[in-house]
Every structure is written in C-alpha cells, then in structure tokens.
Amino acid sequence: MYVIVRHGNTFAAGETPRRIGARTDLPLTDKGIEQARALGALFARQGLRFTRVLVSPLLRTRQTAAEIVAALALPAEQQAADFLREIDHGPDENLFEDEVLARIGAEALAAWEHHAVAPPGWTVDAADRIAAWQSLFAEPQAVPTLLVTSNGAARFSLMSDPALAAAAQSLPTLKLPTGGFGLIERDQDGALNLGCWGERP
C-alpha cells in the first residue's frame, strides 16, 4: 500500500497563490497544519499503519509528514527521498498563475495537468522520477508506505505503470490538491491499482 500525500497550504487565506517549486521553501500556514492534522486523523480512523515514511527535502512536506505521523503515533522516522522533490518551474517560479498562463499558454498548462508533459522552461526530470517510482513499486518486500510530496512530483507515480496510466486517463486532472492524497495498492496477482486520487478528509 502506498499513500501519496500532497503537502498542506503554503499561502494564507486572501493571499494570491504563486507557482512555487524546488527553489522556494515555504513553511505551512496555519491552514496547512490543519490539513495535515486532518489527514492524520483520517488515516488513524481508517486504521492505517505505515512502516515507512518518505518525504521530499522541502520544509512544507516534512511538516506535513510530521503532523500525520504524530496523529498515528508511528515509530517510523521520515526518510528524505530525492525523487519526491518538487519540480523546478524555471522562469515561472514564484509567479502568479495569470503570469504563468500568459507565458506558456492554456494548451501547455493543460498538457501538464492531464498528461504530465512539462511546459517549456520547466525542469521535471520525468524519466528519472518515473524510474524511481518503478523501483519503489517493484520492491519484492513492499511495506505500507506514506509518501509526502508536491503536486508536481506526485503525478509521475501514475506515469510509472501501464495500469496506473490507464486509470489516470479517467481522472479530471493529475493534480493533487493541497492536503489531498492518492492510494495505490498491489493486488494478489501483483498488479497495481489506483484506489483513489485527489481525495481530501
């Protein structure tokens, strides 16, 4: 079982969000902390127990993971995983969405949100990320794993396996909302199944 979580909010209510990536290390807002705690509470009610906790190097993901782990009273420590790091938005880093849209255009943004095709100027290292997800999913002794990452990085889990990619075609978007999660499980025949994507408590 793999539960993939996007970190909580990094912009306060009333603050216009910007497109932030690997070069902008923001902490969670109070709302973001609430979202992380809500995830922890949900997972606790569901009786989820994680043997391993993988996080991106950024503060917002580490804070989110810490709140979830605290709610579950898990002994597992966070392990930094480079393939979970946020993408680099290049010239669009820290810009407002209307500015990003003006530069790249609606078609490029749609290709990113629905097919994980990066707009020009962004650095996503798609092949390396997909290979890392494939290695994770191929582990012979898979353990229940919590992964806390970003919107940009999470979608490549769905691109790493034919069954997951097929399931992703019916999703309205590959984007995980802040404080949202997806569930990937392996069945008795060894096939990966997408349990949910973009859910929030």
How would you characterize the overall build of this protein?
- By secondary structure, the chain is α/β, with parallel strands linked by helices.
- It has a single domain, classed as Phosphoglycerate mutase-like (Rossmann fold, 3-Layer(aba) Sandwich).
- Helices cover 35% and strands 17% of the residues.
- The chain contains seven helices and eight strands.
- The protein has helices at residues 30-45, 59-72, 97-104, 106-115, 126-137, 151-154, 162-168; strands at residues 2-6, 18-19, 52-55, 78-80, 95-96, 145-149, 181-186, 192-199.
- The strands form two sheets. It has a six-stranded mixed sheet. It has a two-stranded antiparallel sheet with strand order 2-5.
- It starts with a strand and ends with a strand.
- The mean pLDDT is 94.
How many β-strands, per DSSP?
A: 8
The CATH homology group name: Phosphoglycerate mutase-like
Per CATH, the class reads Alpha Beta
So how many helices? 7
**CATH architectural designation:** 3-Layer(aba) Sandwich
Model regions low in confidence, pLDDT < 50 over at least 5 residues: none
Strand order of the largest sheet: 4-3-6-1-7-8
* Helix and strand pattern: EEHEHEEHHHEHHEE
Cα distance, first to last residue? 18 Å
Mean pLDDT: 94
The profile of the biggest β sheet is:
6 strands, mixed
How much is the radius of gyration in Å? Answer: 16 Å
Number of discrete domains? 1
Q: In one word, what is the shape?
A: globular
CATH topology: Rossmann fold
Helix/strand/pairing category = alpha/beta
| Relative strand content | 15-25%
**Helix percentage range:** 25-40%
